[in-house]
């Protein structure tokens, strides 16, 4: 991943609990504003009407604007929101799990998520962590649980310590080093497991599983009272069944798709994966050299994707919404899964 030191103002200011509310418009000003407003039919005969008509009737324009204003997507029963722009910021939020994947900055919606899963240590994926922890303290929320690859745990602890020292504040969190192959119980019906990904620096993805109990085959012929008797006698009558619900890759090459140990990521209901590059302007080789995926590689590996829905993220900031939509339509024709791009933060060429 290339990091550019261009400093630009944030598109949406962070909202903190200690901000004063914006003062309301004075009564006299409200009156003058009301006087200036006119009913729509007062535009009859205006030379602007043809222009308005063309804009309203332009399906391309209206579709593009609706994409610009879209804040999230609903996939397989999950409301997924957030922002993911290559090299700038990634934070994907799933309120149903009370979690966020990566936290490049600190969107206000992320503050209320109890779990954060960090895939790797690039700033556009971890830079907002101290602010996230501090903001939860300001809101008197319980300390969050933050998951990191084991190889960066000590550095993350140092990062938090530095901010505590500089700011003379206490930053409370439960920092969990969760390695590939390990399982963490988020709640009694939900667990998470990391899986191996391939980026320019150490990285890992995460699969969240729903947990349910299923009666063992050898007891399925028994009646209710017999099953109850076995249960009271201490016999384990059920198997624990894990169903992969959502998988998040973070930044990675397409190689993770070819690893048989990552099968659960490719059969989860929803796969959230990156497609940093979309066109011939950046080759597959360029994408691989920087630890990223070209959308053509997803097309080539379509046979391995068994997910019901795929959410594409982390597009390069060079693209417009129209570029993204065109590339996704090309991919959709190759996949049985529903393919949706996360375009929050990207501009339309019509904007």
SSE arrangement:
Blueprint: H1 27-36, H2 49-57, H3 59-69, E1 72-75, E2 78-86, E3 89-94, E4 99-101, E5 115-117, H4 123-126, H5 129-138, E6 145-148, H6 153-167, E7 174-177, E8 184-187, E9 190-196, E10 204-215, H7 224-232, E11 238-248, E12 270-274, H8 284-289, H9 295-300, E13 309-313, E14 315-316, H10 321-332, E15 338-341
Parallel strand pairs: 2-14, 4-5, 5-6, 6-7, 11-12, 12-13, 13-15
Antiparallel strand pairs: 1-2, 2-3, 3-4, 8-9, 9-10, 10-11
Describe this structure in words.
By secondary structure, the chain is an alpha/beta fold. Helices cover 26% and strands 24% of the residues. The strands form 2 sheets. Strands 1, 2, 3, 4, 5, 6, 7 and 14 form an 8-stranded mixed beta sheet that branches. It has a 7-stranded mixed beta sheet with strand order 8-9-10-11-12-13-15. Strand 3 (89-94) and strand 4 form a beta hairpin. The longest helix is centred in the middle third of the chain and has 15 residues, at 153-167. The protein is globular, with a radius of gyration of 24 Å. It holds the Pfam family Lactamase_B_2. Residues 114-315 form the Metallo-beta-lactamase domain. It comes from Prunus avium (Cherry). This is TRNase Z TRZ2, chloroplastic isoform X2.
């Amino acid at each position: 991943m290339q990091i550019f030191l261009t400093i630009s103002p944030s598109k949406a200011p962070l909202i903190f609990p200690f901000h004063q509310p914006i003062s309301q418009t004075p009564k006299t000003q409200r009156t003058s504003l009301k006087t200036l407003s006119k009913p729509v039919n007062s535009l009859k005969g205006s030379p602007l009407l043809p222009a308005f008509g063309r804009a309203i009737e332009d399906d391309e324009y209206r579709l593009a604007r609706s994409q610009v204003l879209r804040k999230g997507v609903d996939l397989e029963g999950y409301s997924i929101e957030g922002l993911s722009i290559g090299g700038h910021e990634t934070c994907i939020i799933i309120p149903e799990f009370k979690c966020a994947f990566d936290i490049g900055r600190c969107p206000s919606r992320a503050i209320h998520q109890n779990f954060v899963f960090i895939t790797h240590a690039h700033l556009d994926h971890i830079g907002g962590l101290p602010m996230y922890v501090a903001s939860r303290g300001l809101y008197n929320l319980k300390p969050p649980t933050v998951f990191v690859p084991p190889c960066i745990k000590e550095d993350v602890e140092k990062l938090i310590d530095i901010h505590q020292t500089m700011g003379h504040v206490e930053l409370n969190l439960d920092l969990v080093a969760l390695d590939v192959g390990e399982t963490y119980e988020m709640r009694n019906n939900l667990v998470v497991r990391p899986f191996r990904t391939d980026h320019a620096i150490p990285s890992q993805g995460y699969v969240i599983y729903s947990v349910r109990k299923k009666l063992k085959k050898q007891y399925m012929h028994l009646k209710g009272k017999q099953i109850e008797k076995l249960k009271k006698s201490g016999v384990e009558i059920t198997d624990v069944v894990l169903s992969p619900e959502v998988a998040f890759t973070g930044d990675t090459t397409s190689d993770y798709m070819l690893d048989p140990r990552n099968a659960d990521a490719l059969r989860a209901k929803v796969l959230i994966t990156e497609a940093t590059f979309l066109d011939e302007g950046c080759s597959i080789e360029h994408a691989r050299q920087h630890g990223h995926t070209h959308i053509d590689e997803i097309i080539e590996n379509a046979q391995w994707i068994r997910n019901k829905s795929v959410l594409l993220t982390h597009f390069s900031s060079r693209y417009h919404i129209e570029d993204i939509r065109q590339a996704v339509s090309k991919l959709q024709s190759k996949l049985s899964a529903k393919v949706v791009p996360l375009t929050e933060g990207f501009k339309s060429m019509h904007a």
